[in-house]
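Researcher: Please predict.
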Amino acid sequence: MATAPSRPGAAERSRYDELKRVIDRNTGFAHMTRGMNMYTLVALRSCVTERDIPVLTRMLADRDYVTQLSAANVLADPGAEGQQGLRQGLAAAADVRTRSVIEDALREAGSPTRRPIQDYPLSEQERKRLRGCRPVPAP
């Protein structure tokens, strides 16, 4: 049986809000539809470390589909810890769409042809246009 995630503290809520802003500021629009693209993923990935895995895992349950997709794809990037976050999110997923997003990310994480998000070929000018977040202070 899945366990419900614990209630987030103020610091985790603040970090959640900050990462959600990064997603929103780097979301693309095509044919009047809001969606995630590689700019979204590169910007979000550049903001997070392994310490953000619990926050990204919580984002898998966000009501916003773009937030779910972005968090799932970024969680597939940092290796075993991120994949564990995906598995936790899958165990707690309340609906088919969320489970599908997470299952797709887990499949992608295990693909032998997958390359890290930060290796995506963007020009230096494109990388400078990304709107990331404040650096995370060391513990």
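Model: The radius of gyration is 14 Å.
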